[in-house]
Amino acid sequence: MRFGALYRRELLIEVRSGVESIIPIVFFIIVVGIFTFALNDLISDDSKVLVSVIWITTLFTSILSLDNLFKRDHADGTLAVAVLHTDALVAIVVAKLFAHWTLTGIPLTILGPLIGLMSGMQLEHAAILGLTLLIGTPTITMLGALVTALLVGLGRGGELLTVLILPMYIPILLFGMGVCHLNIDSAPYTSELLWCLALLSGSITVIPLALGPVLKLSQDS
Amino acid sequence: MMELLTMDGHGIYVWSTYILTTIVLIGLGTFPFIQLRRFKQRNQEDIEL
Amino acid sequence: MKFLPSWMQRLASPQYFFLDVKVWIVWLYVLGVVGLLVGSIWGLAFVPAERLQGDSFRIMFVHVPVAIFAQIVYISIAVAGVVHLVWKLKMADVYMAAAAPVGFWLTALALGSGMIWGMPTWGTPWEWDARIVTTFILLILYLGLIVLRQVIPNPARATFALSILAIVGAINIPIIKYSVVWFETLHQPASIELFGEISIDAIYRFPLFTNIASVFILTAGIILANMRFETIVRNASKTWVRSWIQGRDR
Predict the structure, then answer these.
(1) Which C residues in the span 146-185 are in contact with B, Cβ-Cβ below 8 Å?
(2) Residue ranges of domains in chain C
(3) Residue ranges of chain A whose pLDDT lies below 70
(4) DSSP code string of C100-153
(5) Between chain A and chain C, how many beta carbons pairs sit less than 8 Å apart?
(6) What is the pLDDT of residues C121-164, one digit of tens each?
(7) What H or E segment, with its residue span, contains residue C83?
(8) How many structural domains does chain A have?
(9) What is the pTM assigned to this prediction?
(10) pLDDT higher for B48 or B16?
């Protein structure tokens, strides 16, 4: 019950901030659109190109949206109070990340395969793309949140975020994109899919626990 | 002796790699000592002042 | 930590670390340099050219050791991160600060020598291939470790953030290691496995292993020298540092 309330609160704050909450989605559509336009011939020849474009744009979108993840809470002092609730901190953090994923991860998971289908991708390939995005986006949110939390309250954090975050995304990108590519080549992809799931389960279990101390320390200085 | 230097036309690549490695390793190896000496000198001046 | 011998426990104190380790550094430097000279001269002059690549394979004797330790240094930083998080050992933080630039330069050297090696054998210095890209990512990881320390003013928070970043980044190491197996790539698969066949001819093994051992020794020496400097900087206000500063002249 308490978790549900926290989750609703985070969602409401995001939604009530207006257009700001859908800017990442708009960004995603625009960038994928530009790529489809620019690489028109390549994409109609080989749907691997489109899959790669969608995956990479997902990473950029997450970087764009993560910059704001803790910024507002840090600015208005919510974070300083949340950090004092040692028992509830994990629940607060999980609610926050879950809300963030609901508003960016789920739309991207739906939009990615949809754009694929619109560009003439086969249904099976689009479905597998959706599946990898469904596994990949929560992992991306978790890893990104951890790195963002390291930089909370630092003035020059924003530019540094990309340099610190992109290397962390490489494994999930390689495996997620690899599954789609193997599927398009009609090769077996079970082991890569299992790697994706391993990264998801690893990040989803450990990172919420690690975020507590990281955020606590960010309020010290 | 010339054979060792030219190495069938591969000499440039081989020797440039070894030279590059030597430069980087010498730089890495001496840098902490240079820093240490600089630190000492800077603080000596501070103490004398 | 009572199970450790007393000379090791002594090293946990910055002052004794600073005093004791100087002799080690000298010996490690001498051993490493002599070993590298022996291995390199052996590899350059006394080993016949390889059947397929001709003489350019001699780059292997620096490329392989440097690339191996570019990865191992990162793993060691991640281990130091764990040690710092679990035991709050100050020396672990000193190690992280000292090893990051060394790892950065080793990775840069691995990339540089790989580029030079690529010119005669692949016909191109740079190819966006799995091993090269993942090694480049390793370079960025090291860069992140170096920059993050400079950006965070509070030292306690900086160390904590670095430990977390190093540990999370360590998931990239198996990706780099197996990138030659998992993905389509120009780079050849590993010729040396820790537990298994060595697919390198015996005459080439000895100079290669001499150089691997020497780079290890030299890297250890350089990291210790860096650590020595870091301990001094961190304890600048202590009396033993002040007496060291004044010591030699008076």
Answers:
(1) none
(2) 16-188+199-249
(3) 1, 156-158, 221
(4) HHHHHHHHHHHHHHHHHHHHHHHS-S----HHHHHHHHHHHHHHHHHHHHHH--
(5) 67
(6) 777 777 777 788 888 999 999 999 999 888 888 888 888 989 99
(7) helix C60-87
(8) 1
(9) 0.88
(10) B16
Return residues 111-140 of C near A (CB < 8 Å). Answer: 134, 137-138, 140
Question: What's the pLDDT tens digit per position in C60-80?
Answer: 888 999 999 999 999 999 999
For A146, the domain range is: 3-219
Chain A touched by C86 (CB under 8 Å)? no
H/E/C letters for each residue in chain A? CHHHHHHHHHHHHHHHCHHHHHHHHHHHHHHHHHHHHHCHHHHHHCHHHHHHHHHHHHHHHHHHHHCCCCHHHHHCCHHHHHHHCCCCHHHHHHHHHHHHHHHHHHHHHHHHHHHHHHCCCCHHHHHHHHHHHHHHHHHHHHHHHHHHHHCCCCCCHHHHHHHHHHHHHHHHHHHHHHHHHHHHCCCCCHHHHHHHHHHHHHHHHHHHHHHHHHHHHHCCC
Task: Tell me the shortest Cα–Cα distance from C229 to chain B, in angstroms.
Answer: 6
For an interface test with C, which of B19, B23, B28, B39 has the most C Cβ atoms less than 10 Å from its Cβ? B28
Query: Which class for C80: exposed (0-12), middle (13-18), buried (19 or more C-beta within 10 A)?
Result: buried
